[in-house]
Amino acid sequence: MTIEAIKQVAELVKLAGRIDLYEQILDLREEMVTLRSDKLKLSEELAECKRVQDISDRLVKRGNFYYKRLDDGKEDGPLCVTCWDAENKAIHVLEKVTTDYMGRKTNVLVCDWCARNRIQK
After folding, report:
1. What distance in Å separates the CA atoms of residue 105 and residue 118, rounded to the nearest whole number?
2. Domain ranges, ordered by start, for the chain
3. What does the alpha-carbon distance between residue 98 and residue 105 come to, in Å, rounded to a whole number?
4. In the predicted model, is pLDDT for residue 120 greater than 90?
5. Residues in Cβ contact with 64 at an 8 Å cutoff, skipping those fewer than 6 apart
6. Of the candidates 69, 75, 39, 66, which has an alpha carbon nearest to the alpha carbon of residue 54?
């Protein structure tokens, strides 16, 4: 039964003067709306769990990074280990040049999301 059908039945019951039954139907309608909302939320959570599991099944750890196996046999990465392990976020690390206090430049791989330096090059 749809919410619209419940609404129509409630109106008929109200016209018949059965206020007690009318109130029960309104409660039923409210419960149905809540259940639909809960179902949508659970469907979204399930989709997210499947997405995370799919990525997790494809990850290979090498050194301080993850690499994701792609369908064509290639790899995507490097990905930040901290971001994946803590938050299930597949964040690419980027190569950046940093300068220390003595003015020496060093290439490092950095995750912009969690801002952790990983490896000096």
Report:
1. 16
2. 3-52, 63-120
3. 5
4. no
5. 81, 118, 119
6. 69
* DSSP letter assigned to residue 74: -
With DSSP H G I counted as helix, E B as strand and the rest as coil, what are the percentages for the chain, rounded to 5? Answer: 50, 30, 20
Tokens standing for residue 56: 């997790």
pLDDT at 46 > cutoff 70: yes
Q: What is the mean pLDDT of the chain?
A: 87
- Residues 81 and 103: their CA atoms lie apart, in Å, by 29
3-class secondary-structure state, position 53: helix
Instruction: Tell me, yes or no, if the pTM score tops 0.90.
Output: no
SS3 75: strand
E strands along 10-104, which residues? 59-62, 65-69, 75-80, 93-99
- Alpha carbons 83 and 115: distance in angstroms, whole number: 10
What was the pLDDT predicted at 109? 87
**How far, CA to CA in Å, does 31 sit from each of 4, 15, 20, 58, 79?**
14, 22, 17, 41, 44
